[in-house]
Write a structure and sequence with these properties.
Low-confidence stretches: none
Strand order of the largest sheet: 5-6-4-1-7-8
Radius of gyration: 22 Å
Strand content: 15-25%
CATH superfamily of the largest domain: Phosphoglycerate kinase, N-terminal domain
Shape: elongated
Order of helices and strands: EEEHEHEHEHEEHEHEHHEEEHEHEHEHH
CATH architecture of the largest domain: 3-Layer(aba) Sandwich
Distance between the termini: 4 Å
CATH topology of the largest domain: Rossmann fold
Structural class: alpha/beta
Number of helices: 13
């Protein structure tokens, strides 16, 4: 993979693809972590007097313009974080935007409007990629979280410009590679969230190396269902019950399911909403012994504080591990940052689906394009 630090970009025009698809509420950013994560790359480019043209997407506008999916609030937040002028374009390829880019000063920053306002972005359209490439002399991908998507600004554009990985993308790959290549033992996986479908490939890939696989959330409910246990009205992934049965056979000595749980009574039975106190203690003891821990997915319904104890305790314990600790998944990372629980954890990945696909051994179009 070609790296940003290996190329001279002094006074070059650089198209920087980032993932500023941040959570918003009524036009206000509720979590700016993805913006902050790319600041080292942007500051490096500014320091090299590059002309920086930033492209990103927000939400799923499917080729339609809307105020709700405008990048303008993000550009303002970037300007605040950098304490530098950031110019917000009023489009992507319009003549007035081309003029703005042409007039950009060395060390200057311009942010294009939502790339997904043009449907050709998600179609990986060569013509759209070529037009974007005309803005620059060098392409830098620092958008790991969407590098599993073959989009025009991720994959096709690399055919028209010398292309390099930004500092964040490099850190993502280096951190996640510690899990796939030679994790220090004991190696513990902590798997939660609602659905197991997107995690099954990753579990299959990492399970042979793992010492323990600690399971919570809706994923645990699916495993419990596969074992024939009564989960009543609890959420589970029905289409994955068979796959869970197979995993229980293959990794029966490694998969650890909650020995107790917190639940609420509902009409027709109950719903499991968190791992119980005994399971929490058991999971924390396993994590304390680990040298490598990977966590994806909250272990309970953390939106209600009554059911967040398992997740909070696991986060606290991970921060004390004398080894490598990595957390991936937007909901999990977002919760840890919101609750200020990320301190001491080695790496908080910006990638959700991209991280899971990478750990499952799948080829990511955005990464392959840089090789």
């Amino acid at each position: 993979m070609r790296l940003l630090q290996d190329v001279d970009i002094r006074e070059k025009k650089v198209f920087l693809r980032v993932d500023f698809n941040v959570p918003m509420d009524k036009g206000e950013i509720t979590d700016n972590n993805r913006i902050k994560s790319v600041l080292p790359t942007i500051k490096h480019l500014v320091g090299q007097k590059a002309k920086i043209i930033i492209g990103t997407h927000l939400g799923r506008p499917e080729g339609k313009k809307s105020e709700e999916t405008s990048i303008a609030p993000i550009a303002r937040e970037l300007q605040r974080l950098l304490n530098l002028k950031v110019t917000m374009a009023q489009g992507i390829l319009e003549p007035e935007v081309q003029k703005l880019v042409g007039d950009l000063q060395y060390g200057g920053i311009i942010v294009l409007e939502n790339l997904r306002w043009d449907k050709r972005e998600e179609e990986n359209d060569a013509g759209f990629a070529q037009d974007l490439a005309k803005y620059a002399e060098v392409y830098v991908n620092d958008a790991f979280a969407v590098s599993h998507r073959a989009n025009a600004s991720i994959e096709a554009i690399t055919k028209y410009l010398p292309s390099y990985a930004g500092f964040l993308l490099q850190e993502e790959i280096e951190s996640l590679s510690k899990l796939t290549e030679a994790p220090k033992m004991p190696f513990v996986l902590v798997i939660g969230g609602i659905k197991i479908k997107d995690k099954a490939g990753m579990i299959d890939k990492l399970a042979p190396k793992a010492s323990r696989i600690l399971v919570g959330g809706g994923v645990a409910n699916t495993f419990l269902k596969a074992k024939g246990e009564d989960i009543s009205q609890s959420v589970f992934d029905e289409e994955m019950v068979g796959a869970c049965e197979e995993m229980l056979k293959k990794y029966d000595k490694k998969i650890v399911l909650p020995i107790d749980y917190k639940k609420e009574n509902v009409e027709g039975g109950f719903r499991i909403l968190d791992i119980g106190s005994s399971a929490t203690e058991q999971y924390c003891e396993e994590i304390k012994k680990a040298k490598t821990v990977f966590w994806n997915g909250c272990l309970g319904y953390v939106e209600d504080k009554k059911y967040s104890d398992g997740t909070r305790r696991v986060a606290d314990t991970m921060s004390l591990v004398a080894g490598t600790t990595i957390v991936a998944g937007g909901d999990t990372v977002g919760y840890l940052l919101q609750e200020k629980l990320g301190k001491g954890i080695t790496f908080l990945s910006t990638g959700g689906g991209a991280a899971l696909e990478y750990l499952a051994g799948e080829k990511l179009p955005g990464i392959e394009a840089l090789n």
